[in-house]
From TrEMBL:
The gene is FUC1_0. It comes from Nicotiana attenuata. InterPro entries: Galactose-bd-like_sf, GH, Glyco_hydro_29, Glyco_hydro_29_N. This is alpha-L-fucosidase. Its main location: secreted. Residues 1-24 form the signal peptide. It comes from the Eukaryota.
Length: 491
């Protein structure tokens, strides 16, 4: 027989019941993230964007003829790099902070850097390694050994192959070589297509839809680059400069490979229905292939390019051409080391981390998880400050120095682009005075202040106009010692 409850037990149970009645339990409600605004980037596009700097290697018969565009009739015997070392190429890239490298497997001259079974106009007929060599294989193996991803460029225009100009025959040939490259050399993260073609070239219709479908079938995580994407778009010039307004969104139906509006490519479209971020391609030298008479751009030029590409919501694709020996020239290696060192010097210290921080409002209240402190953590995508209501008149986030004034000449702002690109217009104030303004932000916006160094105790970033509630994932206040008040970068 069970024992009856004691009087003390009854008292405890009664007291607990009364407390529950007086102080009912509160269900903890976590504020969800705001709705995304379409279109959104894919996983592959997000990973690509975070690379910021990638590298191109233009190498082939042009390296030995001092040309930019080969004729397609060069004798394969001229291709004979005496010291080709793909490991040196990859080491150069790694030292520059690069995690993706792209090789011209075939340029417009049609000469293939791998032993394609669909043509004899390749390394098979060169004296390099007695015709047994494979540049693409050495490139891929060297990259894999260092944990670097690879991309390939297979020129649609082929000045050697006699099938060029015959739509069906040449498209079959091109697809066959595309399958070779994407089947034989492992994981490829970017494939490069363009519409470059001489004015006297035969009329030719490329079956781009067929090509793209084949690429996706063979490589599931690849980004396809062209004027019209569908993964990454050209920025519209070969200077490495994006527009001061730079949307990742654009309408692909308005784009045509080889015949797109450069200004539209350069700026994108806030009403764009496709997420197609811009890639800025430029060479470290004047030409894309190595020429003895050329030298690398100076540090000032490279930093200018960096601010106008990476600092304008783009990825910078920097070409570094191997020389006749098959090596990256010492002068290029040295300049790239200086470039990487300069970037690290500028952005390694964030003065904003020493500040107190507040904002106009916060989604979900004080404990909602979207506070302004999120802009100072190391997650530049998925933690962010979100204001309470998009209908507010003034969205702002402010940093205040705790003891001595802040001295800086670069402001970095980043959006949480995983939920869409939103901001249309913004301003920056120091001690209540406007020092800079801009339009889009995207993954990264770098303001290199035109008047040079500023000093103040408070820095406020105002969002003036946005497609939806603005989401800022990261903010930095930096000092660039290479930037002078007169608007010139020190060398």
């Amino acid at each position: 027989m069970a024992k009856p409850y004691s009087s003390m037990s009854c008292l405890i149970i009664t007291t607990f019941t009364l407390l529950q009645f007086i102080f009912p339990s509160q269900e903890v409600k976590i504020t969800p993230p705001p709705l995304p605004i379409l279109p959104l980037p894919s996983y592959a596009q997000l990973k690509w964007q975070q690379r910021e700097l990638i590298m191109f290697f233009h190498f082939g018969v042009n390296t030995f003829t001092d040309r930019e565009w080969g004729t397609g009739h060069e004798n394969p015997s001229i291709f004979n790099p005496t010291r080709l070392d793909a490991n040196q190429w990859v080491d150069t890239a790694v030292q520059a902070g690069v995690s993706l490298i792209i090789l011209t497997a075939k340029h417009h001259d049609g000469f293939c850097l791998w032993p394609s079974k669909y043509t004899d106009y390749s390394v098979i007929r060169s004296p390099w390694k007695n015709g047994q060599g494979d540049v693409v294989k050495e490139f891929v193996n060297a990259a894999k050994a260092r944990g670097v991803d690879v991309g390939l460029y297979l020129s649609p225009w082929d000045r050697h192959d006699k099938r060029y100009g015959k739509n069906k025959e040449y498209n079959e040939h091109y697809l066959a070589q595309l399958q070779e490259l994407l089947n034989k050399y492992g994981d490829v993260k970017e494939i490069w297509f363009d519409g470059a073609k001489g004015s006297n070239a035969p009329n030719m219709t490329y079956y781009f839809d067929d090509w793209f479908a084949m690429v996706r079938e063979l490589q599931s995580t690849i980004n396809i680059f062209s004027d019209a994407g569908p993964g990454v778009r050209w920025v519209g010039n070969e200077d490495g400069f994006a527009g001061s307004t730079s949307w990742s969104t654009i309408n692909r139906t308005l784009l045509s490979i080889g015949n797109s509006n450069a200004d539209y490519l350069n700026s994108g479209d806030p009403k764009g229905t496709d997420w197609l971020p811009p890639e800025c391609d430029v060479s470290i030298r004047k030409g894309w292939f190595w020429h003895k008479s050329q030298a690398p751009k100076n540090l000032s030029d490279l930093l200018e390019i960096y601010y106008k590409s990476v600092g304008r919501n783009c990825v910078l694709l920097l070409n570094v051409p191997p020389n006749k020996q098959g090596l990256i020239s010492d002068s290029d290696v040295q300049r790239l080391k200086e470039f990487r060192s300069a970037i690290d010097t500028i952005f390694s210290t964030n003065l904003a981390t020493k500040c107190s921080i507040k904002a106009s409002s916060q989604r979900g209240g004080k404990n909602g998880g979207f506070g302004p402190e999120n802009v100072l953590d190391n997650d530049h995508l998925w933690t962010y400050w979100a204001p309470r209501d998009e209908d507010e008149d003034d969205h702002w986030i402010e940093f205040k120095a705790k003891d001595k004034p802040l001295r800086f000449n670069v402001v970095r702002i980043q959006e949480a682009i995983g939920l869409g690109q939103r901001i249309k217009k913004h301003e920056i104030y120091v001690n209540g005075m406007k020092i800079a303004n801009g339009t889009t932000i995207g993954y990264k916006k770098l303001h290199r202040l035109e008047k040079g160094m500023v000093s103040g105790y408070s820095v406020r970033i105002r969002i003036i106009e946005s497609r939806a509630i603005p989401l800022i994932s990261s903010v930095g206040l930096h000092f660039d010692p290479f930037w002078n008040p007169n608007g010139q970068v020190a060398t």
